[in-house]
Amino acid sequence: MSHCANFIDGQWIDSREIIDNINPADTDDVIGQYAQASVADVEQALAAASASFADWSCGSIQQRFDALDAIGTEILDRREELGRLLAREEGKSLGESIGEVIRAGQIFKFFAGETVRLQGEILDSVRPGVQVEITREPVGPVAIITPWNFPIAIPAWKIAPALAYGNSVVFKPSNLVPASAWALTDIISRSGIPKGVFNLVMGSGNSVGGHLLNDRRIKAVSFTGSLHTGAVVAEACSKHGTKYQLEMGGKNPLIILDDADLDVAVNCAVNGAFFATGQRCTASSRLIVEAGIHDDFVAAINVAVKDLRVGDPLKEGTQIGPVVDESQLNQNLKYIEIGKDEGATLLVGGGRVERDTPGFYQEPALFIDTNNNMRINREEIFGPVATVIKVADFEEAIAVANDTIFGLSAGICTRSLEFATRFKRECKAGMVMVNLPTAGVDYHVPFGGTKDSSFGAREQGSYAREFFTVVKTAYVGR
After folding, report:
1. How far is CA 442 from CA 77, 93, 252, 446, in A?
2. Which letter, b or e, does each residue of 308-340 get, where b requires 16 or more Cβ atoms within 10 Å of its Cβ?
3. Is a pLDDT exceeding 70 seen at residue 296?
4. 399: Cβ–Cβ under 8 A, 6 or more apart, which residues?
5. Rounded Cα–Cα distance for residues 273 and 287 (Å)
6. pLDDT tens for residues 103-135?
7. DSSP line for 121-139
8. Distance CA 163, CA 184 (A)
9. Nearest alpha carbon to residue 451 among 392, 399, 408, 418
10. How many domains does the chain have?
11. How far apart are CA 65 and CA 63, in angstroms?
């Protein structure tokens, strides 16, 4: 069994405290043992990131390009191996896992290019003989705190721009998925990045995460996780004047109008709601269906959901893997009971299922006869659970879609140019999709939401520079 250490100041640092990384599809399978950083370890990582920042931020952009390009190349070359590792520890199907690894590699390749694309401006001052230069500089040492549901893609889309724009990094992944984080760190450690610029500290949110949030050497925090923890991050950063960026989930609507292509609508709903075991902040958890197509849609999606194959993510034919751990499974099952108690009809699924190996398997669940005031339509469940809300027309559909504290992603299925155009303009979400699943975005465009889903600058694409750099204005006289 592998025993994996933290990576601090260019060295692998072991710890007395370790945790087992358990395969959610087979709880008898221990993937490896992973060190838990002590307070002293975190202090050493902070010191290393601070000491290395000056040289890295002012160093060669060609060095940054070469390092990020090398990281992206190795990730892509090892896509099958890393995809199998990801599937074992997180539970999504092997195809989805390999796809996530490919995306991580593409992200590093994209930000390798960004190292040589960062631009400034030269302007004339209103004062004669004075020139104005506007440039961007790195923020400083940054803390990156990531969740378990995308254990290599989300770290990639935070780490790559942080390094590309000249920042040093202290990275804390979720304790549920340390293997992918460690594998990524191993690749980064051999990329030519100077020691101390990138540091991995594995451990709990309370100990490691809390220490990072309350240290003034950290100049920016990029966090993806729950709404509750996001509020903790915001409070701590505000107290210390630290720049912060939050991604905190969604309760995403998919509107299906009477004129929609039924096959397209069902595909969008099933893909968005249930793939990746529904453990995506962009999942379509609320299916808002116009009355004229409602019965046909419900009949068709009922068949489609029953046909989904739940099983070991490494086995051929598996579409839906296990839930990430027992705590998440119990939470999902609790919401099934809440939905029933609220008067919703459980059309299909929802129960725990047994497979050849002991794991956290759940049948995809679909509720009908729901309204938007029910808890199952207000709170993020973060599992393979979706609801159908019947509405009279587009006006009611858009009102219901917007009636949520979240605003990450939203979709519509329609053949109408008028309604598609109105939806794109009127829907209060950061990302909107027409005749596509709400889950699934490209690596070169901005990612983020509105309302309680997100705070701060967008992630991914060239928009990432807004968070990982600061603007400087320089005046030059003759």
Report:
1. 20, 20, 18, 8
2. bebbbbbeeebbbbbbbbeebbeebbebbeebe
3. yes
4. none
5. 9
6. 999 999 999 999 999 999 999 999 999 999 999
7. EEEE-SSTTEEEEEEEEE-
8. 14
9. 408
10. 2
11. 5
In terms of domains, do 194 and 280 share one? no
Strand segments (E) across 161-262: 169-172, 198-200, 220-224, 243-247, 252-256
* 183/295 same-domain check: no
In one-letter notation, the amino acid at residue 89 is E
Range of the domain at 56: 3-248+453-477
The SS3 assignment for 311 reads: coil
Structure tokens at 222: 């990029």
**178's torsion region: left (phi>0), alpha (psi -120 to 50) or beta?**
alpha
If DSSP codes are grouped into helix, strand and coil, which group holds residue 339?
A: helix
Query: What's the CATH code of the domain at 20?
Result: 3.40.605.10
What is the arithmetic mean of pLDDT over 326-343?
98
Rg (CA), the chain: 23
Q: Does the global pTM surpass 0.90?
A: yes
Active-site residues: which are they?
247, 281
Surface-to-core class of residue 356, CB atoms within 10 Å of its CB (0-12 exposed, 13-18 middle, 19+ buried) = exposed
The Cα–Cα gap between 12 and 26 comes to 29
Instruction: Give the angle 377-269-152 at the CA atoms, nearest 5°.
Output: 90
State whether 332 and 405 are in the same domain: yes
- Tally of helices (H runs) and strands (E runs) in the chain: 15, 25
Both ends of the chain: CA-CA distance in Å? 67
What is the pLDDT at residue 2?
74
User: Could you give the maximum distance between any two Cα atoms of the chain, in Å?
Assistant: 79
Two tokens at 348?
Answer: 């299909």
Backbone angles phi, psi at 214, to 5 degrees: -110, 20
Contacts for 406 with CB less than 8 Å, ≥ 6 apart? 249, 250, 251, 252, 380, 449, 451, 452, 453
